[in-house]
Structure formats: structure tokens, C-alpha cells
Amino acid sequence: MEQILNFSEPYNVQLFDQVVNCMYSGVNRTEMQKAQQILTQYQQDPNAWTTVKPILESSNNENSKFLALQVLQKVIQQRWKVLPQLEREGVRNFIVITVINCSKDENYYRQHKLFINKLNEVLVAIVKQEWPQNWRNFIPEIVNSSPSNETLCENNMNILKLLSEEVFDFSSGKLTSKKIAELTESFCNEFSLIYQLCEAILTNAQKPSLISATLQTLLRFLNWIPRPYIFETSMLEVLITKFLPIQQFRNDTLRCLTEIAAMVEPKYDEKFELIYVHVMRQMPNMLPLQTNLPSAYKNGSDYDQKFVQILGLFFTSFFTNHLQVVEKDQYGQLVLDGHQYLIEISKVDETEIFKNCLDYWIFLARDLYFSEKKNQANVYTEQTLFLSTPPSSRKLIYSRILSQARLVMVSKMAKPEEVIIVEDENGQIVKEYMKDVDSIQLYKSMREVLIYLTHLDYVDTEKIMLEKLRAQVTGYEWSWHNLNTLCWAIGSISGAMDEKDEKRFLVTVIKDLLNLCDMKKGKENKAVVASNIMYVVGQYPRFLVAHWKFLQTVVNKLFEFMHEKFPGVQEMACETFLKISTKCKRKFVQRHQGENQMFVEKILKELKNHIVDLEPQHVHVFYEAVGYMIQSAVPQDQERLIKMLMAMPNHRWQVIMSNAAQNLPSLCDPTTIKDLVNLLKTNVSACKSIGHAYIYQMKYIFREMLEVYKAYSQMISQEISNIGPKAASHANVRMMKAVKRETLRLVESFIGNTEDIQLLVTQFLPPLLEAALGDYKNSVPDAKDPLVLSLLSVAMDKLQSGMNQYLPTILEYVLECTLPMITTNFEDYPEHRINLFTLLKSINKNCFQSFLQIPAQGFKLIIDSILWAIKHSTRNIFETGLSILQEMLSNIEQLGNDGIRNEFYSKFYISILNDVLYILTDTLHGSGFKMQISIIHHLLYVVATNKISVPLTENQNESNDMFVKRHMHSILHSSFQNLNTNYIQQFIVTLFNYIHQEQEFTNCLRDFLVTLREYQGQEDTSELFYEERQRKELEQKKVIESVPGFLPPVINEFAPNQDEE
Cα 1016 to the chain's mean position, in Å? Predict the structure, then answer.
């Protein structure tokens, strides 16, 4: 087999075929693995491409030819420019001849389609390198060769389609901006020849496959060709009148019309009118409006289903871009018919088709909402005495369509994130353990539509929802799915109605749902209804706040559900209780008329009964919920309420502490350890929500908690001393580590919430650091808790300069012993990694001055750890490292101290530049592109503007900017030897020239990286455009901020109750 790696003699194609056959269809596993290994070596050999010609000429094995073409394609993409001119011409001519010969024979062309497609890809790869400079007559050649043979003409169409895709659809990030401009200009300049060829085929050809290939190629051309070719020729007429009515060409033609519909060219509005009118006049013959589309789609062929999908795309594209063009009296019915088709398409049970329709319903509803709002503003401006505003004519025109859209949304509503009781694929009601991300995103989009639709006509929305709810109660439409989608839709429009209308609507909904819960038999049915009740009430805090008695009823119902054993019900009851507590917390700590105590006191007195059936994790949620109530109580009540809340945990805590005081080994009892973990988790939940007032509870347990922490630290150390490091993984040690971890979480939460900084610094921090830092330093790596690092980060952010005195100790006890754990590889101790770099970020942000005062060796250790972070393969770690480095460089400049700046850069400039260039040019750190650009720009800026007045290295005999240019050239040339040295030099000079033009600087670097990807054979360059995508997403978010219902409604918890109403 190894003989196929011998490229110095005439190539043995027969042996190559045997090796390929062995790999794909061998019977001996060992032989197959050996063949695969040999072929991998063959593909990696730089001389393998020289065997492509004999293999393509002599081999009868399709797999062999395909493999050879892959090798050649890789050479064209990565090494084409370093091949001698004669060899490039030889390869080009050979591939052209091979493509022509393979395409002329109809039978061969049909039987070897995959091979010929690969040949086309290789040819297009050559064209991208050679055209237009070295192959100026490429377009005339391919056009002139087409009339000679229909099959050749068909393949030429495929080549042109592939080239168009490579230049206009997939070039972003793969070609430099200069190359894209060259190819685009060449294509446009010579398109007249291509158009004449397409026109001749569509006018005269009879061969269906050739016509289809031409239509598909034309589709790829439409988004870039000069517009007169589309609108000022016979193209549109040919498409609509000749090919759209023919079923065989209908889908390809409709795709072309959809692409045209996406264009916005006001001067051709009359043409767009004609497109729509002609298509709608053809529609009754293609798909009658009365068709039951969901059923027809379900039973239709793949081709018919594809037609429905493309038709949906045509309507959504046309209406999104040209609705106003056809909103004329003479086209009124045609426009409504088009929307009726979209309604029917929206009913089809296919998610991707529905998502496309959904995007348009969002567009239409938003457009009508804002035009209606503008109409109202104009009316009020002109005649302020109007008591009500007449609806706009557009809103009336679409009223029937909008009503049907509401019904579709309500019937198909996706599941929101809060719902965890679901129907599985077997029709069973179960608890959901993994969130369905696609469903959550779909819910957000459908919610957006329903909110707009509710604003446009809340009466119709309410009517549809209440009618469907009555159908549930009567049993006419009863099913778990129907009830779920209805209630999810009801919950989604919270805040979209006027408060008075919302009250009337919600009272009816809740009463019907409670009646339904009483009516239905069986645990599964009751669980579904209960889940929906909890979801709906949790979505309407504004109503609950305004109606105290109703709020009481809802909470008492939740307490009932907390005793329900059906999977998921208790969890959802606790989560709903938490949601209500955060939104309505003040209502629970007010003394309402006719009541002699706050409702929170009533809850606390019956606390044991409420939580008796709950799992520990649900108890923690309950405590967090009550904590929010206590947080909103007046200060003089808080201490008493906290004592009531923590009475049961504190009693158990005191029992454990008393036993430990008499017999310390009692802390080793597994039940005791488990109880301590749960007690601490309960405290963490309470601390998180109570806030600063938790200090009363913290004073009660703090000292004993630290003693327990120290005791377990000693026990763990003793266990490891006796058994060795493997003891850290033993069950009893893991349980003790869990107690320590929850202790750290509690203290971290307390520090983050407390407002008494002085008390924190004097009473809590010194004993805490004494207990945590020494233990962390002395523990074996597997026993070091990463939460110590997280705790220190929170303390840094809270106390800021107040932590300066502790910084040397922290670096000594934490940094020096953690770095060896994480710098041996990129995998071990992931939590320690991210927490350490987060700590460094906090120190850099809050204690930078102290940073500079630590000993030189310690500061070097910090810089080394940051540079290690930016090279890490985990995204959040290297992005944290880049963020630290970026902020540190900014801090150096803000100090304005030339001495500090010179000292810093003389020690670290070159190492920072080297490492940032390294990660910029690899493929693992693309998401940090924006920060990498910023750092490199800063480094070049400070030398270009002479801000550094000392040499950057020893024995430097030239200015800093010249030294940096030469150093960058050396690094890039040694790292990427395929790059021409003149190209590298020109790139560096251009980079420095753009030092005051940040956008051009970014584009220059981006083009350089695209060139590198080309030589390295890497495809994914999407991260180079990450900041542009992020900017667009932020712009889209701003659009909906002004619409009531999208953001949580403003709740006035001090408003009087409206129960009497």
C-alpha cells in the first residue's frame, strides 16, 4: 500500500484504486484501517496533487477520482499562488478539458453527477484565483461553448451558478474586500453575454433539465445583476406567463419571483404591481383559495409541499417589501386573497413554514400598530375634543385577516419557559427536565404578534380566547394540547390590555379554570389544569396587586398545590409563588382592612404545614419567596419576621452545634452533614432575597459557621494526610466539601447584599479571610474550593479600595498556588480557571493602583496569568483574559504617568504583542476579534505616537515603531511561510497608516485574516463579523420598548385595593 506515496516514478493508478477500495469496502478491519492511514498520508503530502491527472485519466473508480479532486482543490485554495505559472496553466487547461469531455455525453453526465459536481467545484476554485487578471476570456469561453451541446450547456449553467454563489453569497469572510470588488465588477461587466445565453435558453430550449438548470442559475444571479436586466427586458413576462403555469417549472419560477419580490426599487413599483396581479390571477389554477391546505400539505408530494413553502416565502417577501405598492382600491380583494393564502399556509403543521409566516405577521401587526398610533396622534392634534379615535381604514381593511391570525396564534401557541409540566411524545403528562430552546424562541415571537394584535383589537382577542375557554369547559374542544396553547396565549398578552379590561378578562379566565380543575377527574387532568392556572396567574402581577383578596385566594391555591405529589406540580407551585412574591411583595407586608396581621405573618405561622410535603430544593425556593416579602417590610418589622422565618432552621442548627460542642466527631455523621448542607442552602436562598436585613441572621450563625468550616477543613486535611490525594474524591470528604461550599456561597451572597461596609470590614472580613485563605493555600489541589476565588471577586467589587490592605495576602495565598493547577494544560480545574480570571478582572478594575505596588515578580506572575488566559481554548476564559488586558492597558494610559508607562511596556510590550497576534491568527479565538483588534490598535498606537520613550527590548538600535514593524514582519513570516514577504510588509505599513482610522484599521486586519484562512484552508470566518451582528440585534430590541406588554408593566404596590369593585 505504501507504494502509492511514491511520487518520483510513473504513478500506479491501479494500486491506488485497490487501496481506495480496501478503505471503502474491505472485509478485513485491520486492512481497512491501514488503507485509511495511508490515504490520509497521501492527502497530506504536498506532492500528491501531481497524481491527479493520471488518476482522472486512468481510474475507473469514482471514489478514487473524488479523492484526487479533493487533494487538487486543497492545493488550489492554499498553494495556488506559489505554483509556477506553467504548472498553473497546465492544471487549468486539464480541468477545463476534463469538464467539457465529461459534460458532452448525456449518459455519462447523468450517471456521474456527483463526480462532475466536484469537477465544477475545482474549476470554480481555479476561476476565483485566476479570473479576471489571468483568465480574461473565461465568461466568453463558457458562453460560446454552450450552444454546441445541450448537456454541456446545462453544466455550464451549473458552473455559473456555483461561481455566482461563491462570489456573492459565500464570499463574506472568505475573500478580501479587494478581491470581492474585482470579481463583482467583472461579473457585472460581462453579464450581458450571460443574459443573452439565459434568454436564448428560456426562449428556445425544449429540454426540461436544461430549463430547470437555467432557472436555478438565474435565481442565483437575481440578487446582484443590474436591475434593468430584470425590469426592462422580457424576463418577468417569460417567467410569469411561460413557466409559472407549468407544474414542472413552477417551484423554480416562484423562487425567482420571490427573490425579485425581496428587492426594493421604487422606480419599478409598476412592475411589482404587475408581478403581484399576474401571480394572483394564476393562483386559482395552481391552488384554489378554498383548498384545505393543512390536509392537502399533509397528503401532498414532496414537490407539492415545497410549492406551499415557496408560496409562503413569496407572499411574505412581497408584502414585507411592497405592501403599500398594492394597497390600492383596484387591488383590494387581491391583497386580501394573498393574506388569506398566508393564513391558510400558517395553519400547516410544519414549523419552518410557520416561522416564515410568523415573521410577516409580526411585520404586519407592528406596521398597523404604529400607523394606528400615528393616526391617533394626528387626530388628537387636530381636534383635541375627540373622546375616541376612529380606527384607520387600513386596520378595518385587514380586520378579518387579523382576527384569523389571532385564532392561529392562540391555537398554535408555543410553550413558554416557565411551564415544566408537558405532554410527551407518548401522550403522557410528565415533568420537563430539559428546556426546549427552539420552543422558547418561538413563544417569544408569537407573543410579540399577539401583543400587537391585542392592541389593535383587544375585544376580538378577548372574544376568541373566552370562546375557546368555554369550549374547554364544556368539553367540546377539551384536550391537554388545546388547553395548554390557550393558556399560554392568555398569559402572553399580560399588560397589553387596559387595566380595567384586563381585570374583567382575567376574572373570567381564572374562574373558568378553577371550575375546570374541580370538574376534571384524574391526576393527569388536574395536573394540566393546575399547571395552566399557575402559569396564568403568575403572568398578571398588575391585576394581583390591585386585588388583594384575589391575590390571597391565588396564594392559598398555590399552597394546596404544594401538597400535590404529581411530578412537577410542587415545583411549579413554588416557582409561581416566587414569581408572585417578587412582583407583589409589598402586599404581603401590609395590614389590610379587616385583618389584624400581615399576611406574611400568617404564612410564617403556618410555615411548617406549607412546606411539609416539599422536597428540600423546593423548600429553598419557598424561603427565597418569603425573603422578598421580608425585604419590603418596614425595618422595625424585619428582624422579627426573619426570626420567624428562620426559627425551624435555627433550631436544627442549634442542636447540631450543641452536639458538636460536646462531641466534635458528631459533625462526621452523614445525616448531620446532609442537614448542614440543606440548612446552609436555606440560608443562601433567604439571604439572596432578604438583602441587607439578613445581617440579623448572619450575626446569629456567622461565628459557629466559620468554626464548622475550619473543623471540616481540618478533617479533610487529616483524611488526605492519612490516605493520600485520592481521599478528596471519597463520599464523606465530598459531603464535607459541600458544607464548605455552601458556607462560601452564603458569605458571598451576604457580602453582595449588605450595605454596612464598615461592619463588613471590621467584623466579618478578617475572620472570614483567616478561615478561607489559609485553608485554600494549604489544601491539595483537588480540595481547593473555587468558590473562594468567586467570594474574593465579590468582596473586591463591593469594597473596592477597601480591599487594598488584603491584596498582597490574597495574591500570596491564592494566585501562587492556583496558577500551577491551571497552567499545565487547558482542561483541568475549569471552575478555578474562570473564577481566578474573574478575580483578576475585579482586582484590575477596583485596585489597579495597588496592583502596581506589589513586587515585580508578583506583577509578572499576574501578567503571565492574563496572557495564559487569552490563549485558553474556552470562550468565557479567553474573553475574560482579553477584557482584563484591554482594561489594564486603558488603566496604564489613564494614569498619565510616563514612568509607569515606560516601565510597563519595556517589560511586557513584546510578550503581549506576540500573544495577541498568535490568538488573532489562529481559529480558536474568533469571538474575541473585536477586543483583539482594540488591543493591537492600542499597542501600535502608543509606538506610532511616541508615547513610549524607552526601548522595548535590550540592545535595540532603532526607533520603537521601526522595531515593532520589523518584529511583526519576522513573526508573521516565520509563522506563515506561504505568505509573500512583500505582502506582509505592505500589510504592516498599511496597518500603521490607518492608526487614526479605526474602521479602516479593522478592515485591513480582517482582510489579512481572510488571506490567512485561504492559505490555511479554513472555512469559518463568521466571528470576524460578530460585532456587526451584535449591533443589529441591539437595534432590533429598541423597536419594541415603547409598546405596552413587551416589558413588564409598571406595578404600583401602594395603590388601594380594588376588591370592592
Answer: 27
DSSP state of 38: H
Cβ–Cβ < 8 Å for 624, 574: no
For 233: left if phi > 0, alpha if psi spans -120 to 50, otherwise beta; the answer is: beta
Query: How many alpha carbons lie under 13 Å from residue 676 in its C-beta half-sphere?
Result: 30
* Alpha carbon distance 869, 858 (integer Å): 17
* CA dist., res. 437 & res. 793, Å (int): 31
Question: Hey, how many other C-beta atoms are within 10 angstroms of the C-beta on 494?
Answer: 21
Mean pLDDT (10-residue bins), the chain, 1061 residues: 87 92 86 91 91 92 93 90 89 95 92 94 93 90 93 96 86 69 84 93 94 96 91 94 95 97 94 96 94 95 96 97 94 95 96 96 94 72 44 85 97 84 59 69 94 95 96 91 94 91 92 90 86 89 89 92 87 91 93 89 95 95 97 94 96 95 92 96 96 95 95 89 83 92 95 90 90 89 90 91 84 85 82 89 84 80 87 87 93 89 92 92 80 94 92 90 93 83 90 91 86 54 45 55 61 56 43
Q: Across-strand partners of 1047?
A: 1044
Helix pair 247-261, 208-221: axis angle to 10 deg: 10
Rounded to the nearest angstrom, the gap between the alpha carbon of residue 509 and the centroid of all alpha carbons in its chain is 35
The verdict on pTM exceeding 0.85 is no
Q: 874: left (phi > 0), else alpha (psi -120 to 50), else beta? A: beta
Q: What is the Cα–Cα distance from 341 to 293, expressed in whole angstroms?
A: 9
Q: Locate all alpha helices (DSSP H) within 606-694, ordered by sequence.
A: 607-611, 616-631, 635-645, 647-662, 670-690
User: Under a CB-based contact definition with an 8 Å cutoff, are residues 157 and 213 in contact?
Assistant: yes
Q: 132 preceded by cis ω (within 30°)?
A: yes
Question: 93-113: buried (b, 16+ CB within 10 Å) or exposed (e) per residue?
Answer: eebbebbeebbeeeeebeebe
Q: Residue 191: left (phi > 0), alpha (psi -120 to 50), or beta?
A: alpha
CA-CA distance, 339 to 321, in Å (whole number)? 14
